[in-house]
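Reopening: structure tokens for the 4'-deoxy-4'-aminopyridoxal-5'-phosphate complex, inputs below.
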Amino acid sequence: MLRVETARRERVKPSGPAHEPPLWDLVGHTPLVPLRLSVDGHAPTVYLKAEWFNPGGSVKDRPAREILRAGLALGALPGRRLLDASSGNTAIAYAMLGAAAAIGVTVCVPANVTTERLALLEAYGADVIETDPLEGTDGAIIRARQLADRWPERFWYADQYGNSANVAAHRRTTGPEIWRQTETRITHLIAGVGTSGTLMGVGQFLKEQEPTVRVIGVQPDAPFHGLEGLKHMATAIVPPIFDPNAADEMIAVTTEAADDAVRWLARERGIFVGWSTGAAVVAARQVIRGLSDADRRDMVMVVVAPDSGQRYLSERDRLMEMR
Ligand code: PMP
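Re-run output (same inputs, fresh job):
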């Protein structure tokens, strides 16, 4: 077992310009939590990168901060409002970080995002534009583009799906943290794909350090799915930042399998996470099953866990249902 940091957070050092709100320095520095998995009688070394420890409650604080910095550097903010489309977590991150820096935030979100997400956006004072739930995040993207075209003097379109700052945030923070926390021994990275910023940024960084690290993406198996935050690439607007060649493998997971994993993690391990983490753990098991005994022994896998199950409490039915 590695001597990784678990309970203790990494010490927070100011990383941005001196004038940034201190709250922004709390982004990142998340713990790596050992996950006891048993696969075909083996106990492989697997860690969750616990991104729900971010101040806004999800991995999306990282790209949101980097994108806000880019908007400030361009001079587009704070004069205009930041505008973007989101499945919820990025919207909350913009709203929280924006409130701390007196930057106005307008977000387009599919109307079926959980009530927790809408309540949080309200709490932070963001303007929320709800879009057709049947169109998912693609509908929100189209609406945000329309608004930005119509009122360029009012809005700065942050475009998390096409903004290189999204990838850069993970190259600069998530990747190096994982590299340090595993004492450079990581062999496998598993991350769900929404904008793909996490997979692209962390994957690029790790492969630069050690080209043999396997980078594995996770996506829903169908266009209509319950894996909030993830995209079905074959039918969705493909994010411009996504490079399919950057992943060694893409694994499709069913909503039902992720449901089971979410319940198992909560009830058997005391780790209550969102559905995209459940899907990533399903993919992790699949990868481990495909390894030889020797590879399983040497393997050090990190599974990115983007958010907590607390963000989905209104979907209680899904949690209670036993299979
Ligand atoms: N899981 C959840 C819960 C998310 O909100 C997101 C972001 N859309 C992801 C996974 C995927 O992260 P990324 O956008 O970096 O691909």
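Residues 21 and 101 are 6 Å apart (CA to CA). The beta strands are 32-34, 45-50, 81-85, 105-110, 127-131, 155-157, 188-192, 214-220, 249-253, 300-305. Marking as resolved unless the reporter disagrees.
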